[in-house]
TrEMBL record:
The lineage of its organism: Eukaryota, Metazoa, Chordata, Craniata, Vertebrata. This is Glutathione synthetase. Pfam families: GSH_synth_ATP, GSH_synthase. Keywords: ATP-binding, Glutathione biosynthesis, Ligase, Magnesium, Metal-binding, Nucleotide-binding. Mg(2+) binds at E146, N148, E344. It comes from Oncorhynchus kisutch.
Length: 450
């Protein structure tokens, strides 16, 4: 493991590791690091531990605090983008022609713009994800992978994992290491944003509607939404929180009707349709163009510099010479890039030979405009054990991704809340190029600051 992380002799002590695994699983269960099982996903009677690392993974202290410090700027950036209709129209003009899902979201956005927004309260709960790119001198640079403006997950479980790793380290006799794991409570920070938006809504009887998808019934349905959204028995919906609705498979025709219905309602949407679009990959790529950040932060060069420092190389695949150059660059050195479609939820990005296969098929077609290209971040691998139900225990070579949660509330033109709400570390074996915890690839982790 990296310097100042868990020493190799500890990682190779088989008897100690065997004992610690049992301690770790018990600690996870005692601390509420839980999930339902695949076999009984709708049962509250059967749970297991959520997948997690045996040890916390080393993260440079300065880089970690850089990620926390820039989060409130990212909150402002997302909010400013959501209010700039000309920028969204221009940035997504090519994408919506070839990507049906983004196009349908944009049609709802246009409908809402034409009618006029019904709600002046804006609630944003997001998570900006980073990896640490290794520089030639051995130092690491913080590089953003993406920002999730809809259904930013794992704030709850991330609030419980610090105590698990502290306990494991204490049992392993590493008391000083246990003190390097910071308190972390994204649940409280995200709930603070929800509570503030609910308070501003101004009705004590109003409720929060959480839209999720269960196996047995899809409650992201127009009839369900219609029943819940409008006043009934003296209640009304103050906030609609989307834990669903970020993938094409979440939508039938009736679901699209429900999404439009919600956007037109008086409820505060988290996110509203413009904030959802602000988190698309194409917007991420457009933000990296010279002068674009200055458009959103005039007279704030320090903010621009802090945000831009986290950008990896991002390249357009629009038709024309610039996009042609991107295609040629990716085909020449595919292992240096990631090809990203306009999708969320993990497991969608393309790497290596897959990039060549896709681009060779669409390089002369407008279909290529559905993607962007990004430099592949090259983090330093570390060794750890990944604990997952039904998976044999082995020492794995791992890569980590740091997420930082943000919460903001705007009322009209007044930003009444803008905070960093906590962090999340996820770690996966380097055998996998893509995929998160929900996809069964990554596991929960904690930063061990070094």
């Amino acid at each position: 493991m990296a310097a100042k992380g868990i020493p190799e002799d500890v990682l190779m002590d088989n008897d100690l590791i065997k004992d610690l695994v049992d301690v770790a699983k018990d600690s996870a269960l005692l601390n509420g690091v839980l999930m339902r099982t695949k076999e009984t996903p709708n049962s509250s009677e059967v749970v297991t531990y959520a997948p997690f690392t045996l040890f916390p993974s080393p993260v440079p202290k300065d880089t970690f605090h850089q990620a926390l410090a820039v989060q409130t700027h990212y909150n402002r950036l997302v909010d400013k983008i959501s209010q700039d209709s000309s920028f969204l129209e221009e940035a997504l003009s090519t994408t919506i022609k070839v990507d049906d899902f983004t196009g349908r979201l944009f049609n709802i956005y246009r409908h809402v713009l034409q009618e006029g927004k019904t709600q002046s309260i804006v609630l944003g709960l997001n998570r900006s994800d980073y990896m640490l790119d290794q520089n030639g001198d051995g130092s690491a640079s913080l590089k953003q992978i993406e920002i999730n403006t809809i259904a930013a997950s794992f704030g709850g479980l991330a609030s419980h994992t610090p105590n698990v790793h502290r306990h494991i380290l204490k049992v392993a006799g590493r008391l000083e290491d246990s003190k390097r794991i910071l308190d972390n409570n994204p649940s409280a920070g995200l709930a603070k944003g929800l509570a503030k938006a609910w308070e501003l809504y101004g009705s004590e009887r109003a409720v929060v509607l959480y839209l999720v998808e269960e196996l047995q019934r899809n409650i992201f349905d127009h009839r369900y939404v219609e029943n819940e959204l409008w006043k009934r028995d003296g209640r009304e919906v103050a906030i609609v929180y989307f834990r669903n609705g970020y993938m094409p498979q979440n939508y039938t025709e009736q679901n699209w009707e429900a999404r439009l219905m919600m956007e037109r309602s008086m409820a505060v949407k988290c996110p509203d349709i413009s904030t959802h679009l602000a988190g698309t990959k194409k917007v991420q790529q457009e933000l990296a163009r010279p002068g674009v950040l200055e458009r959103f932060f005039p007279g704030e060069p320090d903010v621009v510099d802090q945000i831009r420092a986290t950008f990896a190389g991002l390249y357009t695949l629009d038709m024309g010479p610039e996009g042609d150059k991107t295609v040629a660059m990716a085909l020449a050195k595919p292992d240096q890039f990631v090809l990203k479609p306009q999708r969320e939820g993990g497991g969608n990005n393309l790497y290596g030979a897959e990039i060549c296969q896709v681009l060779e098929g669409v390089k002369q077609s407008t279909e290529r405009m559905a993607y962007i290209l990004m430099d592949k971040v090259q983090p330093r691998p570390v060794h750890n054990y990944l604990l997952r139900l039904g998976t044999p225990l082995k020492l794995s070579t791992c890569l980590s991704e740091l997420g930082v949660f943000g919460a903001y509330v705007r009322h009209g033109q007044d930003m009444v809340l803008n905070e960093c709400a906590g962090h999340l570390l996820r770690t996966k074996s380097d055998e996998h190029s893509d995929g998160g915890v929900a996809a069964g690839v990554a596991v929960l982790d904690n930063p061990l600051l070094v």
